[in-house]
Specification:
The chain is α/β, with parallel strands linked by helices and about 375 residues long. The protein folds into two domains: about 160 residues, TIM Barrel (Alpha-Beta Barrel), CATH 3.20.20.140; about 160 residues, Rossmann fold (3-Layer(aba) Sandwich). About 50% of the residues lie in helices and about 10% in strands. It has a five-stranded parallel sheet. A three-stranded parallel sheet has the order 6-7-8, sandwiched between helices.
Length: about 375
């Protein structure tokens, strides 16, 4: 089974300053985003990835002044097209759009799909505070639908006024994490989907007589595990499950089934080796340091004993094609461990985890 990886970000070297006027990542990460040649291909080979679907990292061209957005979008898409042309059997791409100008975004979407051969478009969250439910995006969404192209809805960085209210006053590293990967990105994308659903409810009536549809929500066992250091992440995944449960009941009227495919965090991939690069020295005087050291040792083993990605793909395929798919698929490399934590009293599970991680309070 070919393994195709989505959300494989790139950032053309000559356009870094335009996409990120201020640095948004360490130099080492930026260097990896810039590379679309032999080093990236080696990493793909090591991970068993047959093809990457490239997309320009957030915010793409969506936060620059409107007069510059069209030119930047074209340049970003042209660079991605060059990478695809150099390795057509290893890369495809999602188009970056100048959503500040919906008319120009329609033109660029058509060019990217019909001329450059891209397989879809990526929308990086809000466009200067405006989400896709805003009426000015109706024609753009219709045009993308007519192109029969998927939209990859990706998060972006919070607006300054939001960041100042919600994520300021914290230690720098903690504030940055909560604003992005630990919480903010999940919350923003969830809100984006809810806004679209709320705005479109009045337009869903024609679906009542159409063919059956399926929405797949991919969450994580982290929604229930509640592991040390994952509180915000677990909350975001739990929110996906709650959202999916409600939507499934609401969408029954329109013949749309909402299925939760729950995959583990521990997918078999070399990415877990990156745990060795995480600097935990800031916790040197913290009582959590021993626990973090043990967690790192556990994470480093996941590249060997994690769940093969093919297993997740097979469950998703089954959910999309089965006449009577299950409502929820839980896929884990160690089902017995998750079963035990599900049936044991919570206080007992707390003590087991605390003892393993050295978090028991001295007596």
């Amino acid at each position: 089974m070919p393994l195709i990886a989505l959300e494989e970000h790139v950032l053309p070297a000559d356009l870094v300053d335009q996409v990120w006027p201020t640095p948004m990542a360490p130099e080492a990460l930026t260097a990896k985003l810039v590379d679309v040649n032999e080093q990236r291909l080696r990493v793909m080979d090591d991970a068993g990835i047959d093809m990457q679907v490239l997309s320009v990292t957030a915010p793409g061209s969506q936060q620059v002044p409107a007069e510059h957005a069209t030119g930047l979008s074209r340049a970003l898409n042209d660079r991605c097209a060059e990478a695809v042309a150099a390795h057509p059997d290893r890369f495809n791409a999602l188009a970056t759009l100048p959503t500040q100008d919906p008319g120009a975004a329609i033109v660029e979407a058509k060019r990217a799909i019909t001329e450059l051969g891209f397989c879809g478009v990526v929308i990086n969250g809000h466009t200067q505070g405006r989400f896709l439910d805003a009426p000015e995006f109706d024609e753009l969404l219709t045009a993308i639908e007519e192109l029969d192209a998927p939209i990859y809805l990706h998060p972006t960085y919070p607006p300054r006024q939001v960041a100042d209210v919600y994520f300021s006053g914290l230690p720098e590293q903690a504030g940055r994490a909560l604003a992005t990967a630990a919480w903010g990105w999940h919350a923003e994308t969830g809100l984006h989907v809810l806004r679209l659903a709320a705005a479109e409810m009045a337009k869903l009536e024609p679906l009542a007589t159409g063919e059956r549809g399926v929405v797949i929500s991919t969450a994580s066992v982290a929604a229930y595990d509640g592991q040390i250091g994952q509180s915000a992440y677990s909350a975001s995944k739990h929110a996906i499950e709650g959202l999916s449960e409600g939507l499934r009941r609401e969408m029954m009227l329109f013949g749309i089934d909402v299925i939760i495919v729950v995959a583990p965090g521990a997918v078999k991939t070399p990415i877990w080796a990156k745990a060795d690069e995480v600097d935990i020295s800031t916790y040197q005087n913290s009582p959590f340091l021993p626990a973090l050291e043990r967690i790192r040792k556990f994470i480093l083993k996941l590249g060997e004993n994690g769940l093969p990605p093919e297993n997740i793909a097979e469950r998703i395929f089954h959910a999309l094609t089965a006449a009577s798919p299950k409502v929820r698929y839980q896929i884990t490399p160690d089902p017995m461990r998750h079963l035990i934590t599900a049936v044991l009293p919570k206080r007992t599970v707390d003590k087991i985890i605390a003892k393993r991680l050295g978090l028991m309070r001295p007596t």
